[in-house]
Each structure stands twice: as C-alpha cells, then as structure tokens.
C-alpha cells in the first residue's frame, strides 16, 4: 500500500499584464514551481497582454510539498527575461477545496527575501543549572537551499539570535546541502519580553550584501515544557510586506485540483480488472456492453479525460485495447444521427481514442512529424499569409537592398509553406509500415464501423473523416502546434517558428476535414494554398485506404503481432543514464543521453529511437527503485534502479528523470 498526491494544473489565460517591451506589449510565459523546484514552462505567447495558454498537466507531488507557485515572465531575445509577477497557492488552500480551484488570481511582485526554500536540521534544548537555565541550539545541516550565486549554488552560514546576542556558524562554500555541526549556548533571561529564538540562514557574498535564505522561529516558553526538540524545520520567508501593487500586475486564470490517493496492492484491483475485461470480451459476440455503456453515461465532463486515459492503459496492458475502442465506437455511432458531428464532441470514445494514440502511437508520430518540424525550427523562415499580420520590415531580400512588398512576402510564404506541406505529406504517405499494428487495427475497426453505420453514397466521405478527425485533428495538428508537449523538441518555438507551425497545423486541419470550401469562407487568405490542399486531400484518402486495408494473410500476421503487443509502450523519450555494477565513488558527470522506452514488462534504452541495438531491464528483475540525494550527483532528479542480471548479480542504473 502506498500514498501519493497528484495535482491537476490547467494554466488557462492571463489578462491586464503590464507592458514590458518597447513595442507596447509583452511576450509572456509561465513557470510553475512546486516549492522551489521548477517543473513546467509553458509556451511563450508573443506580443500580447492577454495571453491564452490552455495547457494542462498532471503532476505527482512529494507528500511534503507546501506551495505551488506560478511565475509569469516576459521573454526577451537580447537580454535577461523580465519578471512580471507571481501567484502562490498553499497546500492548505488546495486541500480545503476538494472540488478544485477555478478562478482569476492577482499577480504580485516578487520579493527576493520571500523566495526561500529548503530545510534545516536543528536540535533545541533547555538545560537547568544551579542558578540559571541554558538554551542550547545545535546546528547540524541544511538541505535544498536556494541557489543565489552565478555558479548555481550558495555560500551558506547560519545566524542564531536570542535576547540581543548573536552567533554565526562558519561559511560553507558552494553548497546547497551544507553541514556545520556547531552548537551555541544562551542564558535564558526570564524577564526578557520577546522570548523567541531566531535561526536565520544567509548566503555569504564577498562584494555585495548577503542574501537571505530563510529562517525558523522558536517560542522558548513552549519549549520549556518539552525541554528538547530535534527535527528538520522548513525555512520560512521574512514577514510579507504590504502589497501596493496587487492587482496592478494583471491576473492569471488557473484551474487546480489536488488529490490524495491510497494505492493498494495489485491483487485488490483484480476483480475490477476481470469485470471490465469480461465486459469487453462479451461485446465481441453481442452488440452492446452494459458496463462500458454505464461508464460512458455516468462519466462527467470534468473526469472524462482521466477515465479515458486510465481505461486505455488498463486494456492495453490486458491486450484488449482494440476491443475496448470498438465498444466505444459502437456506442458513439448508435447515439449519432448526423454524420457531420461524429466524434467531434469530447465524448468518452473521442477521449479514449485520443489517449490511445498518445500511448501507442507516439513513436510513429515522431517518425512522421519529426523531420519536418526539425526543418522548420532550423530554417526559421518568416512565413505569413494573413495580410493584416505581414511585417514588411522582417522580410528583406537576401542580396538586394530593397524591402519586399506585401504581395511578395505572401508569395514567398506560400512557397515555404507548400514546401513544408509537401515534405509532411510525403512522410505520411511513406509511413504505413511504420504505423504500429495495434494503431492500424484500431483505425480499420473505426473505418468499418462508420461504413456500416452510414452506407449511403452521399456519406461516402464520412468513414475517411472519422479516421482523419483523430489522426489529423487530434494527433498530428496539436503536435505540430506544440511540439514540446509531444516531446518532438526540447524547447518551445520562438515567435517566428511558432507562427509557421500554426499555419502548417491549420493546413493539416483543412486537409483532415476533406473540405476546401471551409477554408475559403473562414480564412480567405489561405486560398493560395488550395491547390496543395486539394492534392493533399486526395493523397490522404489514398493513404487511409491503404492504412486500413490488409490481405487475408497479412491480417493473420497482424493478429499475431497484436498479441505480442500486449507489452505496449507506456512512456518513451530521451533521458540521461549511468550504469554500474558496483556501488562506489560517483564521478561528477557520468551520464549519457539515451532514448528510453518503458513497456509493461521491460525498460529499454538505446542511443536513438531508431537504434537497432538496445539494452533492457526486465521489470520483474527490478529489486528496488529509490531517489538519490542531490549531493551525490549535484542534481535533484536522479533515481537508482537496482536489478538482477542473468547471473543474479546486482546492476545499478542511475536515471536523471528530468532533461534540462
């Protein structure tokens, strides 16, 4: 049995942000911190004081966390990014709102003296002597202190104060995990009005003034009754100042929901797993599944995404993902009378198929989109088709001393965009053999079910649109617009690249809708791309026909491969690893970058996602997993995985769980 805390975070939007750039606007983005640890950076929304992000995250939290903070920053390409303000929400506030927090919160100014973190290990004791009582403070060590110096560390020392007297420890250079092991004694003055012991931690600086790192306060009157107290104490900031700027820095709309969960041993969940699997297996021989229909009807809109994700992972693990999706396809088709609305709502079927693609098709997505997205990032071409947004000054002719006209800019942009689209469509058309069998099988099932439901000639496009609504509109297009969220890139794009990606994603959406008329009425400036769009529609329909078509023998081979794919991919991406057989002295930078894949039964890693040679650990061979203290490697995101090799000898794999 284990306990865990998870936090749902949705960073919705901001409004009334202050101007930070000479253009009269700002380029805002958000950084999310759990206590002191930065865990999320949103995309930058360029040239706006009312940004919309709409980014969602599920974060597993340490049980000891205290605060989640949102820092709004203004990105600058030539100088250091400006701080706009922050919002902090304490754990107690989140815990008091089980239904979640949803609303606008005012940004406040950031005070360096309030930006504290870490804990200090102290022992406070009172001893009696013949004529007096002594107060002793033993300072052992501190951990996870704020980094105040340019070298990424601090030079901490401790200041202990009581009754007008002050002592200081030695300075520990370049450490956020200092050890002092020093003691200080004070004589207790019974007449002293302010009976408080103050322990402060500071960062020593040779030239500038020392930086405050946090403090702990002890009421000596309360301590007298227990005589001694020893523990790790959280450092707190200086008392907050009165805020004159509150509300003047704009506000942030957030949706937050904290959940504390108890995780039981797997055998406790076995009856439920068997019940769900039986409901799906029964559906193979009958038209409906009462249990799945009940889940579909009773799942609320707020929880639908979470339910869908968990069900998809469960059925993937049981080798029944295709059958589960088929049940949902049938339920959705039964409820749909108008084919134009098919799978367009956020139903359980839509959310489940979307989650399925993200789990089972992520490597395929990287294969298809990776080259084109990388090319756009590397070339950084100026691309704009909307006349109202064309910036003539940014589009000078190479080698000519003149500025391009608006028409020339649009013509050149059309050429660039057509080139990117051609590359992408070529990659899609050649990707059939790279598409995972389980994904192809799910699309075939969807295609056939829709064809059965809408067999008339007037609806002949509906079966294609059903596939493209997931493949293009819910999978490819979102990944093109936000490549970092789909692990296609390590960083968010700049303003120019972001606009190019958006225009390409729009074009893919138009092609996915199989309708060129829609683009003419909504955004007439997309008309120059219509020839490429029409060709893309024809190519995409041919691709889908091939994707869902199998020969009888190939179909049997596919079934065999599907049975082997019960070990489906849960998570994959690049991480830094270090492998050793013996515990010993750890060198400072032993880590190398590998492409790591976690499946239901193995953890494998190779130099790249396409490497033929890879190493793996069978999950049943893992004996322990634990976090490694930051001082071991100078990084707080390292864990060690201890497993047995074929000779039952211990092997240790160190994994840096956060790529910077």
From TrEMBL:
Q: Which domain of life is it from?
A: Eukaryota
Residues of the PH domain: 568-660
**Residues of the Ras-GAP domain:** 303-513
SMART domains under this entry? C2, RasGAP
- Tell me the Pfam families matching this sequence: C2, PH, RasGAP
Give the PANTHER family listed for this entry: RAS GTPASE-ACTIVATING PROTEIN 4-RELATED, RAS GTPASE-ACTIVATING PROTEINS
- Source lineage: Eukaryota, Metazoa, Chordata, Craniata, Vertebrata
The identity of this protein, by name, is RASL2 protein
Species of origin reads Polypterus senegalus (Senegal bichir)
PROSITE patterns in the cross-refs: C2 (PS50004), PH_DOMAIN (PS50003), RAS_GTPASE_ACTIV_1 (PS00509), RAS_GTPASE_ACTIV_2 (PS50018)
Gene3D superfamilies, per database record: C2 domain (2.60.40.150), GTPase Activation - p120gap, domain 1 (1.10.506.10), Pleckstrin-homology domain (PH domain)/Phosphotyrosine-binding domain (PTB) (2.30.29.30)
Annotated signal peptide: none
Keywords noted in UniProt: GTPase activation
All residue ranges annotated as the C2 domain in the record: 1-105, 116-233
Q: Which InterPro entries match?
A: C2_dom (IPR000008), C2_domain_sf (IPR035892), PH-like_dom_sf (IPR011993), PH_domain (IPR001849), Ras_GTPase (IPR039360), RasGAP_CS (IPR023152), RasGAP_dom (IPR001936), Rho_GTPase_activation_prot (IPR008936)
């Amino acid at each position: 049995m284990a306990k865990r805390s998870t936090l749902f975070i949705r960073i919705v939007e901001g409004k009334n942000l202050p101007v930070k750039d000479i253009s009269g606007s700002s380029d805002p983005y958000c950084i999310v911190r759990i206590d002191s640890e930065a865990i999320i950076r949103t995309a930058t929304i360029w040239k706006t004081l009312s940004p919309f992000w709409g980014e969602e995250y599920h974060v597993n939290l340490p049980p000891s966390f205290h605060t989640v903070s949102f820092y709004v920053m203004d990105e600058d390409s030539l100088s250091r990014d400006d701080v706009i303000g922050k919002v902090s929400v304490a754990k107690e506030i989140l815990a008091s709102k089980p239904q979640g927090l949803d609303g606008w919160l005012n940004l406040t100014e950031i005070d360096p003296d309030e930006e504290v973190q870490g804990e200090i290990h102290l022992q406070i004791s009172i001893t009696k002597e013949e004529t007096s009582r002594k107060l002793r403070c033993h300072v052992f060590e501190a951990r996870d202190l704020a980094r105040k110096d340019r070298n990424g560390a601090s030079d901490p020392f401790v200041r202990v104060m009581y009754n007008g007297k002050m002592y200081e420890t030695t300075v520990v250079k370049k450490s956020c995990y200092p050890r002092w092991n020093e003691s200080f004694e004070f004589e207790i003055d019974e007449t002293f009005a302010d009976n408080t012991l103050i322990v402060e931690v500071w960062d020593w600086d040779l030239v500038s003034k020392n930086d405050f790192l946090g403090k702990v306060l002890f009421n000596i009157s309360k301590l007298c009754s227990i005589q001694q107290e020893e523990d790790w104490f959280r450092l707190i900031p200086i008392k907050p100042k009165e805020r004159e700027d509150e509300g003047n820095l704009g506000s942030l709309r957030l949706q937050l929901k904290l959940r504390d969960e108890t995780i039981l041993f797997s055998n406790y969940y076995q009856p439920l797993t068997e019940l769900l699997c039986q409901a799906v297996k029964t559906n193979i021989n009958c038209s409906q599944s009462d249990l799945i229909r009940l889940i579909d009807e009773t799942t609320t809109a707020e929880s639908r995404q979470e339910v869908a994700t968990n069900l998809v992972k469960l059925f993937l693990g049981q080798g029944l993902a295709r059958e589960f999706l088929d049940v949902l396809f049938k339920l959705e088709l039964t409820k749909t009378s108008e084919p134009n609305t098919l799978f367009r709502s956020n139903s359980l079927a839509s959310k489940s198929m979307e989650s399925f693609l993200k789990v089972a098709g992520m490597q395929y997505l990287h294969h298809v989109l990776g080259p084109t997205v990388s090319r756009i990032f590397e070339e950084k071409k100026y691309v704009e088709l909307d006349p109202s947004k064309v910036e003539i000054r940014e589009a000078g002719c190479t080698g000519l001393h003149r500025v391009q006209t608006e028409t020339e800019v649009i013509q050149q942009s059309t050429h660039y965009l057509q080139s990117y689209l051609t590359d992408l469509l070529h990659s899609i058309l050649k990707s059939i053999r790279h598409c995972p069998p389980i994904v192809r099988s799910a699309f075939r099932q969807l295609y056939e079910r829709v064809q059965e439901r809408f067999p008339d000639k007037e609806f002949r496009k509906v079966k294609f649109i059903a596939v493209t609504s997931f493949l293009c509109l819910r999978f490819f297009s979102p990944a093109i617009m936000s490549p970092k969220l789909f692990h296609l890139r390590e960083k968010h794009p700049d303003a120019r690249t972001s606009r190019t990606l958006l225009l390409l994603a729009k074009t893919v959406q138009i092609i996915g809708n199989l309708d060129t008329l829609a683009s003419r009425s909504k955004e007439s400036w997309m008309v120059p791309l219509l020839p490429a769009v029409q060709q893309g529609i024809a190519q995409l329909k041919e691709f889908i026909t091939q994707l869902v078509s199998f020969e009888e023998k190939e179909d049997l081979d596919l079934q065999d491969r599907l049975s082997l794919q019960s070990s489906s991919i849960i998570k994959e991406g690049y991480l830094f690893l270090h492998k050793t057989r013996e515990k010993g002295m750890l060198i400072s930078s032993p880590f190398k970058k590998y492409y790591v894949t976690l499946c239901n039964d193995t953890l494998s890693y190779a130099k790249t996602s396409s490497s033929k040679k890879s190493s793996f650990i069978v999950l049943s061979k893992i004996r322990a997993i634990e976090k490694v203290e930051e001082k071991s490697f100078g990084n707080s995101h390292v864990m060690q995985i201890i497993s047995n090799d074929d000779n039952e000898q211990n092997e240790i794999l160190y994994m840096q769980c956060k790529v910077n």
